[in-house]
Structure formats: structure tokens, C-alpha cells
Amino acid sequence: MNYWKKNLFFLWISQLFVMSGLSAAMPFIPLFIKYKFNIVEEGKLGVAISLFTFFGLISFGIMAPVWGMLADKYGRKIMLFRASFMNAAIFPLMAFAPNLFVLILIRAVASAFSGTTTAAQALIVSTTPEDKQGFALSVLSTAVWSGNMIGYVLGGILVNYFGFTIAFLLCSSLYVISGLLIFFVHEDFKPVVQNTKKSGKKSFKMERVLLLLLMLFFLICFLRNLESPYLAVLVSNLTGDDKAAFWTGIISASAAVGGIISGVLFGYFTDKCKPMQLLTPSLLLFGVTLMMQGAAKSVTALIVARFFAYMAIGGAEPVLQTLLSKITPGNKRAAAFGYMSSARNAGMISSSLVAGGIIYFSSVRGVFYISAVAFWLLIPFMGYIIRLIYKLKARELKVK
Predict the structure, then answer these.
(1) C-alpha dihedral over 163, 164, 165, 171, to 10 degrees?
(2) Minimal CB count within 10 Å: which of 198, 235, 242, 281?
(3) Is 290 part of a structural domain of the chain?
């Protein structure tokens, strides 16, 4: 595996292009729907955006495990080609959708064939030495944050001066470049023959641990996305509607910078520390910064709190991804990462439903406070699951 650094380099650049393209187009979909289909009534626009998001998440959640199992059977590199070039072909079609139904259908098809990040993560863990996987996954996460930051700025300029079609075409072009970069990634794929002689009791315990770990991904994604869609509303309450879009972009960019720093820091410590040594302070600090955001009385306070929030939490998921890789057999890792993506998507869908109820009974600020408390309560549950994983791992070593 001497080529793992080369793979990380090209996969990092590839994901940078993908996320830049997506961030240049997807955040502006609400405006595209509003002006393209002349849906100006706030209630109808909200329903249209929700349907667009919902069916995209559902189709991705259904197909992610399928692509993961195929990756374990035929290789992870081919899955990156599939996701990159299929989305490059499908994404521009959104610009020419004649009605909302067709737009939602195109989005659902594009989501079903997407999954470059999941495939890249699976390829990274399959070609990187085990003692370097945490570093590699954390570094890869910085490409996501960097791409988001670039995409926000680039998309805003393109949509403002050239229109939505150019943004969709840019997204497609960057997908093509991302796919071409995969040719430089090396993979000696050899399907691993599954050992059918494992005891039923041991297999049952492993499945239970995997399910619990997937539950952690679900909960983290659920809680992280509980308040995210309502950041613009909080900003609007502080600045007024005229400046809300501008300051929301600035605040989102500051969060992306925090995420980049987080990826670097976690990348250094993930392979050197136990998971809870990193995750406990991460979740504690994230909860504190959520409280700060809920109580913010100025844009400056919100920028500072958002920056430190994502510096605290931005590298947390790679820690769990590293753990997922270590407890999963080599011939099942891509499938496991596919299930992880589905768990994350389920968390996003669920949070969008629950957050509306929280706001209805409390306020926008209440979402931030409740999220903070929930993250603190997650710490002991997470500690229990991770201890269970290490206990199972120790028993396996004794058997061997």
C-alpha cells in the first residue's frame, strides 16, 4: 500500500471539485424553483423545496447500500467513475426542467447515481494502512469543507451575474474533471472470500455492534442538521431580510473554515488517541457553541460561534468512520460505508420533520438550545457503544 498517499492526493482534489460544483448549484435551488416555476407564495414554495429535498435524500438512501455492495464485489474505483460521470450527464438537465415534477424526478435520479464521497471513503480505507486510516479520512473531509466554501462564493457570483443554467453547467463540468482524476487513483482490487465458518453468536454480536454504530451516525447527522436549515432565519432576525442572504453566506463560509481546521486537527490525533478522547471534548464544545448561537445578539457573535462550532464537530465523523473501517471485514467495507450514508440521510430527513415541530412549540432559538442539550446527552450513549466495540474486538483477538 505504498501508493496510499498518491491516492489520497488525487481523491482529495477530486472531492474538492465535486463539492465545489454541488455547492455552486444546490444552495440556490430554492431561488431557482421560485423564479423558474413562478412559485411566489411562501407556503407553496416551502412545500416544493421540501419535496425536492425529500425525494433526493430518499433515492440516495435507498441506493447507497446497493452501490456499496457492488463496490465490494467489483471494486470501489468503478463506483467513483459511475457517480462522477452519471451526475455530470444528469445535473445540467435540471436547468431545462419544464415543471416542478420533472425537476424533482431529475433530482431523484441524480441522487440515486451519486455517492462520490462514500465511494472515495471506501477506497481510502481499502488502500491505506490501518494505522493511517484516521489521518486519511480526516484529510479527505477537509476537501468537503474546502469545496463547500469555494462553491458558495463561486455559485453566488455565477447565479447573480449569469443565471442558474451556468451554475448547473459548472457543476456538470466539475463532475467530469473529478471523474478524470480518478484515472490516477490506484486500486489492486481482489474480492475477499467470506469466511462462512464464523460462529452464529459471534456474527450476531458483530451485526449488533454495526447497527449501534450506524445509529450513532444517524443521531449525529440528525442533531447536526436540526438547526442548520434555520440559520438563515436566525440571521434574518438579526439583520433584516435585505442583508440576510449576504450574512448567511459569510457565516456559512466561516463554518467551512472551521471545518477545514477541524479536519486537519482530527487528522493528526485520530490515529494517536482513543475515539472518546476526541469525541467527548468535541461534542461538549459543539453544545456550548450551539448555546452561544441561540443566544447571539449580533452577526459578529454568530460568526464566531459558528466558526468554533464546526471547528469542534467538523472532524468528528471521520473518527467514527475510522472505527467503522476497523471493525468491518475488508470484503464488506464499501457496503458498510453505503449503510453509513443511508443512516446519515435518514438522520437528515428525520431532523427536517422534527425541527419544524420544535420551532412551532418554542422558537428558532429554541432549536439551537435543544440541539445543544441533545449533543451532551449523546456523549454517554456514544461511550457505551464504543466500549462495546472494543470489548468485541478484544474477544476476536483472543480467538485468533
Answers:
(1) 120
(2) 242
(3) yes
Query: In the structure grid, which three cell numbers stand for residue 80, read together?
Result: 467513483
d(CA 261, CA 145): 9
| CA distances, 387 to each of 128, 236, 272, 284, 327 (Å) | 25, 43, 17, 19, 13
The one-letter amino acid at 199: S
Asked if 147 and 15 touch (Cβ cutoff 8 Å), the reply is yes
DSSP 297: -
Q: CA torsion, points 248, 253, 255, 261, in degrees to nearest 10?
A: -170
Residue 377's identity, in one-letter code, is: L
Output the domain CATH number for residue 311.
Answer: 1.20.1250.20
Cell digits for 64?
447507497
Number of folded domains that form the chain: 2
Same-domain check for residues 156 and 269: no
My answer on whether 180 and 213 are in the same domain is: no
**262 and 138 part of one domain:** no
Those residues whose C-beta lies under 8 Å from the C-beta of residue 320, and which sit 6 or more positions away, are 213, 216, 217, 220, 275, 279
Rounded-to-integer distance, Cα 326 and Cα 333, Å: 9
Based on the fold, state whether residues 90 and 207 are members of the same structural domain: no
Residue entry with cell 464544545 = 285
Q: Within this chain, do residues 164 and 232 fall inside the same structural domain, yes or no? A: no
Nearest CA-CA partner of 356 in 104, 34, 25, 49 = 49
Q: What is the C-alpha to C-alpha distance for residues 386 and 391, in angstroms, rounded to an integer?
A: 9
* DSSP E strand stretches across 262-307: none
Whether residue 132 is contained in a domain is answered as yes
The pLDDT assigned to 204 comes to: 47
For 261-311, the pLDDT digits (tens) are 888 888 778 777 788 888 999 999 999 999 999 899 998 999 999 999 989
Sign of CA dihedral 103, 107, 113, 117: positive
The neighbour count for residue 117, using CB atoms within 10 Å, is 21
Assigned domain for 396 exists: yes
Per residue in 103-119, pLDDT (tens digit) is: 999 999 999 998 888 88
pLDDT at 396 (0 to 100): 59
Side chain identity at residue 264, one-letter code: V
- Domain containing 73: what range? 1-185
8 Å CB contact between 124 and 7: yes
CA–CA separation, 156 vs 375, rounded Å?
Answer: 32
In the listed set 185, 214, 247, which residue is the last one of a domain according to the structure?
Answer: 185
